[in-house]
Amino acid sequence: MTITRRLGASWRKGMASAVVGAAAFTASVAAPPTDGVAGLRVDRVVVVMRHGIRPPTKAQPMPLGVAQDPWPRWPVAPGWLTPHGAAAVEAIAASDRAAFTAGGLLPAHGCAGRIALLADSDQRTIATAEQYARGITPGCGVPIEHLPQDTTDPLFAQIDDGHAPLDAARAKAAIDAAVGPGGIAATEARMRPLLARLDAVLCGRTTDTQCGVAKDPTTITPATARTRPKLAGALDRASTAAQILLLEYADGKPAADVGWGRASAQDVTDFGAFHALEFAILARPPYLAARNMAGLSPRIVGWLTDAAPAAAQIAMISGHDTNIANLAGLLGLHWRVPGIAADDPVPGGAILLERLRDTAGNIFVRARYRAQSLEELRAGTARAPYRRIVPIAGCRARGVVGLCTLDAFTRKLKG
Predict the structure, then answer these.
(1) Are residues 281 and 245 located together in one domain of the fold?
(2) What gap in Å lies between CA 301 and CA 297, rounded to an integer?
(3) Residue 45 bridge partners (DSSP)
(4) Contact 231/185 with Cβ under 8 angstroms?
(5) Are 299 and 275 found together in one domain?
(6) Cβ 327 vs Cβ 295: under 8 Å
(7) Contact 149, 50 (CB under 8 A)
(8) Which of the chain's termini has less CB crowding within 10 Å, N or C?
(9) 400-401 and 2-3: which strand pairing?
(10) Using CA atoms, how far apart are residues 246 and 198, in angstroms rounded to an integer?
(11) Range of the domain at 198
């Protein structure tokens, strides 16, 4: 079932809490949700999730000449969730179900749980929400809130749609601080050895000096009121190429099709540093992150604070790697999933925002990062996913570093 919404003021303030249920799931259960925090109980979770495995978003993934050989074929249209990606999402959803059932957020039997699902309007985000619903509430028919497919949804990209205009000078200062001393040229210079390794995969034995990504100096296109800053040149193209190679490996393609047989699993892991670097520069700086999250942040706070009897206990947002990086930047979160570069948003990976309540009714918030490892993505399984509490920077409550009061958490989302 799908819930669509009009672009009016009402849905900005409202909370679409769909009351649905969950069938039994018999997988191994996770650790108790309090993880040793005495006197606190998790009673609500917001899952902010990147969509699952997809092909490149363009039929010609990168400009001609960047790679020596044709790129591998995919079984679906550019940017769509693949069948393998769908299976991997359903697997991680079933793992979430086991954890939520162990924590008392879902019943062990029947369809009596309270879940809300919100998706961006791309095919891959809608399909990811559908697969998540199948895994977390099998047979229960969970409604999914989203706009019609391929209709721009400002909730997920506030800057680009002019709903959260940027101050160009503040944006530049945020970018300069993220890049650090020496500017983008110094950053590129530090990455030169890895750029050379990537070009060896892209170009093989060709002697064409125009092949590869390292030939074009990296630049940063400044932000305007309605456009985010963008990378161009070597580091931008390296980020794109690295993500394509990761998606090829994660989708289970034969070794001969992963980087044309020239990229190992370790290469895929190492090259992910380019993708993580792009987000560290463009998406994590708090000023930019707060502006781009200006649509989703109120929804997150609303789900965490809704006092209605039918309020969702579990809410999931099916979005993009940019949304994950924005939220991580606002909260100062860091992770390292096996096989994935540090802080790189994993396909199907998610930031879990857990609401904890003490016996006096005081509310606290903490964060986890949850994702399949690179090898589990490739296998389409989630037998032992990465689940780690990631401290929220600058927060300390009840003597626990990284635990926020609700007020402190809400202030952080505002940047």
Answers:
(1) yes
(2) 6
(3) 314, 354
(4) no
(5) no
(6) no
(7) no
(8) N
(9) unpaired
(10) 12
(11) 168-285
What band does 3 get if pLDDT is binned at 50, 70 and 90? low
Pairing of strands 314-319, 115-119: parallel
Residue of 321, 375, 368, 314 whose CA lies nearest to 348: 321
Rounded Cα gap, residues 380 and 249, in angstroms: 11
Which one-letter amino acid corresponds to residue 1? Answer: M
Q: Of 238, 269, 285, which residue is a domain's last?
A: 285
* Residue from 129, 106, 144, 99 nearest 23 by CA: 106
Domain with residue 234: its CATH number is: 3.40.50.1240
What are phi and psi for residue 57, nearest 5 degrees? -80, -5
- 256-280, pLDDT tens digit by residue? 999 999 999 999 999 999 999 999 9
Angle at which helix 168-179 crosses helix 265-282, to 10 degrees, equals 140
The alpha carbon torsion through 300, 302, 308, 314 (nearest 10 deg) reads 0
DSSP state at residue 283 = T
Q: Do 224 and 332 have their domain in common?
A: no
Q: Which residue shows structure tokens 């649509």?
A: 295
Helix 183-190 vs helix 168-179: angle between axes, to the nearest 10 degrees? 30
CA distances from 187 to 230, 234, 281, 343, 400 (A): 15, 11, 11, 17, 35
Q: Compute the distance between CA of residue 357 and CA of residue 243 in angstroms, rounded to an integer.
A: 39
Distance CA 54, CA 83 (A): 9
Locate 128 and state its tokens: 């990811």
Residue 141 — pLDDT band, cuts 50, 70, 90? Answer: confident
Q: Is the pLDDT of residue 347 over 50?
A: yes
Q: Report the Cα 159 to chain-centroid distance in Å.
A: 18
| Tens-digit pLDDT profile for residues 320-345 | 999 999 999 999 999 999 999 999 99
